[in-house]
Structures are given as structure tokens and as C-alpha cells.
Design a protein that fits this description.
The chain has 446 residues and is of the alpha/beta class. The protein has one domain: Succinylarginine dihydrolase (L-arginine/glycine Amidinotransferase, Chain A, 5-stranded Propeller). The chain has 17 helices and 15 strands. Helix 4 crosses helix 5. The site of N~2~-(3-carboxypropanoyl)-L-arginine (SUG) has 21 residues, from loops.
Length: 446
């Protein structure tokens, strides 16, 4: 069956800031307290969407979550008007308000795991919102994400929605950032690749500074709920070395597309066995994976993590060739820029590279691939969406004007206390639901 891959990019929210909330994510930790520019951030993301549409890809968009989340603050016992809730919470715990105000829903690679209908026993597209249980500011995302996905992908004959995997202890699930797919074409049955860091029930590794976020049991639960064929499902373990060096999600050190896996030499634990497992899965579907391994002596793990070489989008262009969508940091670094230029002039399947300035998101550890959720859909499935959240040139221009009008160009973490920011943010989101054809979806609209 013919199918297209739609990249649903997260729109950066009006409260985008550098609160340093993500332990183990070096960019987030190192940029704590810097001034952010929410307007530049959202426009950078829209610029990437525009360029991908110009390359002939189908582009979707997911709106930001309501932030600061006054509802979450109320659950901590703060009462009164919204302004009073924020102010009284700030007086008790500024960190709590900063957590409840993070714009982290922009990284839609962590929104959910999605299995296309070609891979599932009931031939529906399956969605599981990630529980994001490892970090408080992200653990408040899954409810709204599920609500949003059910609203957009609403036709029950095509789409099946699951609850997030229950969270407790270390049962983390970080969504598509730790999930990939290899297939001869988007619409063909594929190998679903789940990459986990630990067992939720295993011993904590005291020898590591940073712990893994993804539990194998969560990945297995998603595969079962999605009705995947076990013979076509492969589980690989992230290397502890990579996690400890700051690769908090596997998409910081590996990305797949078509039959290709582009990855760093140190991305996986027991690499040879991991690649054998992948190859034997692919062989069951009649193809060999194309493994594009980047050696550590050409690009060190640290360089891969600071430049986000692997957090690129590896896409198939309408002509069939593959292209990398990279952050400009990879062009500015001599090792990664040399690697990419050698790679595209060799006989690898990657034929082109396009670079984007996404610095606002990058400073919180979010590169091109973090900003998008891949959803492979057939013609009938995409037709059932109507025009909700799909991008057109007109909608893109409307969003650029909307962002320029509603977003601030400077925000410090302490500005999250400002009650005016909530008013501005809700006004912006109210207008946005109209632009995206979503109808009322936020709590403040109900
Ligand atoms: O979960 N940063 C995010 C970055 C997520 C990147 N996504 C992927 N690799 N797919 C995280 O670490 C920092 C936000 C803040 O401080 O407000 C943050 O959550």
C-alpha cells in the first residue's frame, strides 16, 4: 500500500525558557538561566517546516500545551485566581512553577510512539503517548498529548489510541525518540526498532552519572498494545557509555529511515549482537539493513552529542533519494561537516544535506529530529484528518504572523512568575486553535 511519512513538528510555546530542568541533557544543564527568545524559537521551527514542504514532504504541526499549567499547580493546593495560584506557588517553590511552565512539549519526538497500519495486526495506526515519567516537567505532558492525538486522528476505523504505559519507579517511556523503523518503503511492512536503556526492575548503576530514561518493559508493552508481529520487532540497548556522555535519548546517537540506520559507533550496548539482531529481523522481511556507522575516530561521542549530528531528520525525498536535515552546529564543527560532506559524495544512500538554525531549541537539547513526530499514513488515513493540523503555505504564513504578534522576544526563568505571561500565552493559544482547525481543546477554552 502506498503511504507517506508526515512529520508533525511541535510548535514552540510562548513560555520557552532555559530553566535547566533536564538532568543528563548537557545542553539544558549548561544553559540554565540564559535569556531565551520564544519568538525566534517558534520562527526557527516554522522555517524548518517551510523548507521541508519546499522539498516536497508532507508537514503537520502539533500545538503547544497550556503553560504555565495552572491546573497542575492547583493540584499542589494553591488556590485563588490563576494569577494568585502562580504567585503563591512561586513564593513557596519557584522551581515548581518553572517545571509547570516548561515549553518541553515542542519536542514531539517524545510525544508518542506511533506504529503505521502496515505493521499492526488490525491494520490500524496505533498511538501510545509517552509517559515521560523520568522528569516532572515532562510527566505532565501525556494526558494532553493523548487528548490532542485523539482529536487529530479521530477516525476509529483507521486509528487506535492507547493509554500511556503506567509510570512508577523507573518505568519510563520517552516515545519515538527511542523508536525507529526500517522498511523498503513507507507503506511496506517494517521492522520496528525499540531502544531501551534499562530494565525498570534492574539495579541502579552507581558507576554512572546519568541514568537511562527508557525501560525495556515499557517498550515491550507498547509493542504488545500496538499488535506488532514479534518476529518483526527488535529491541536494542542504548550504550551506558553514550547515556553517561549525555545521550539521554537514542535519537541523539542514531536515526533510521527506509532500510538505513545511521548511528554512532558507541550508540549501542553489545553492538555486534545488536546489529545481528537487526539484520536477522530485516532478513525475515526480505531485505538487508544499510548500516551507516560513524566511527569514533572520525566523530567522537562528545562531538556527536554537542553538534547533534544524529539528531538529524533522515528523510526520503519525493525522487527516492535520502537527505539529512541537520542543525547548523554540525556545519560549524570541522569533524561533523567533513563527515557529512564525505558521506554525501560517497556511495552511501544519503545524497544531500540541509542545515537549519535551531539554536533556541538546541540550547535545551532539542535538535531537528526532536522537534518532529513521524506518522506514516496511507491516502485514506491522511484524508480522514481533513485539514486539521496539516500544514499548507497559507497556514504557515498565518502561523508566522501569529507568532510575531503574540510571542515575547526575551524571557528569563523569573519572568515565568509574571501573571501577564499566562494571559498572553492563553490568548495566543486561543487564536492558534482557530488557525489549526482544532476547535476548543485547552482547559481554559472549556
Ligand atoms: O527531555 N529538554 C528535553 C529535550 C528533549 C529532546 N528530545 C529528543 N531527544 N527527542 C528533555 O531533556 C529542557 C526543558 C527545560 O529546561 O525547560 C528539556 O526538557
Amino acid at each position: 500500500m502506498s503511504a507517506v511519512e508526515v512529520n508533525f513538528d511541535g510548535l514552540v510555546g510562548p513560555t520557552h525558557n532555559y530553566g535547566g530542568l533536564a538532568y543528563g541533557n548537557l545542553a539544558s544543564m549548561n544553559n540554565l538561566g540564559d535569556a531565551s527568545n520564544p519568538r525566534a524559537a517558534v520562527l526557527q521551527g516554522l522555517g524548518k517546516m517551510r523548507a521541508l514542504m519546499q522539498l516536497g514532504l508532507t508537514q503537520g504541526v502539533l500545538p503547544p500545551h497550556e503553560r504555565p499549567s495552572v491546573k497542575t499547580l492547583r493540584a499542589f493546593g494553591f488556590t485563588g485566581s490563576d494569577a494568585q495560584v502562580i504567585e503563591s506557588a512561586w513564593c513557596v517553590s519557584p522551581k515548581l512553577v518553572i517545571n509547570c511552565a516548561s515549553a518541553s512539549s515542542m519536542w514531539t519526538a517524545n510525544a508518542a510512539t506511533v506504529s503505521p497500519s502496515a505493521d499492526t495486526a488490525d491494520s490500524k495506526v496505533h498511538f501510545t503517548p509517552a509517559n515521560l515519567g523520568s522528569m516532572f516537567h515532562r510527566a505532565i505532558e501525556p494526558n494532553f498529548t493523548g487528548h490532542l492525538l485523539r482529536r487529530i486522528f479521530r477516525d476509529k476505523t483507521h486509528f487506535c489510541h492507547h493509554h500511556p504505559i503506567p509510570y512508577g519507579g523507573r518505568m519510563g517511556d520517552e516515545g519515538a525518540a527511542n523508536h525507529g523503523r526500517l522498511a523498503t518503503e513507507h507503506g511496506a511492512q517494517g521492522i520496528e526498532l525499540f531502544v531501551y536503556g534499562h530494565s525498570a526492575f534492574g539495579e541502579k548503576r552507581d558507576d554512572l552519572t546519568f541514568q537511562a530514561r527508557q525501560a525495556i518493559e515499557a517498550s515491550q508493552g507498547i509493542a504488545a498494545n500496538h499488535q506488532l508481529n514479534q518476529a518483526h520487532t527488535v529491541y536494542l540497548q542504548q550504550s551506558a557509555k553514550a547515556i553517561d556522555a549525555g545521550a539521554f535519548h537514542n535519537d541523539v546517537v542514531a536515526v533510521s529511515n527506509g532500510t538505513a540506520l545511521f548511528y554512532h559507533e558507541d550508540a549501542f550496548e553489545n553492538k555486534n549482537a545488536a546489529l545481528d539482531a537487526l539484520a536477522s529481523g530485516c532478513q525475515k522481511l526480505g531485505f538487508e539493513p544499510v548500516c551507516i556507522e560513524v566511527p569514533a575516530d572520525q566523530v567522537s561521542l562528545d562531538t556527536a552529542i554537542t553538534t547533534y549530528l544524529f539528531n538529524s531528520q533522515l528523510i526520503t525525498l519525493p525522487g527516492g533519494e535520502m537527505a539529512l536535515i541537520l542543525p547548523t552546529e554540525t556545519l560549524e564543527n570541522e569533524h561533523t561537516s567533513r563527515y557529512v560532506s564525505d558521506c554525501i559524495s560517497s556511495n552511501s544512500p544519503i545524497a544531500a544535506a540541509h542545515y537549519f538554525d535551531l539554536k533556541q531549541s538546541m540550547k535545551n537539547g532539542g535538535g531537528p529530529a526532536c522537534l518532529r513526530l513521524r506518522v506514516v499514513v496511507t491516502e485514506d488515513e491522511i484524508a480522514s484528518l481533513g485539514n486539521t493540523c496539516l500544514m499548507t503555505k497559507q497556514r504557515l504564513s498565518a502561523l508566522e504572523a501569529w507568532a510575531t504578534r503574540h510571542y515575547r522576544d526575551r524571557l528569563m526563568p523569573e519572568d515565568l512568575r509574571d501573571p501577564e505571561l499566562l494571559v498572553e500565552a492563553n490568548t495566543a493559544l486561543d487564536t492558534l486553535t482557530g488557525i489549526l482547525g482544532l476547535g476548543s481543546i485547552y482547559d481554559f477554552q472549556l
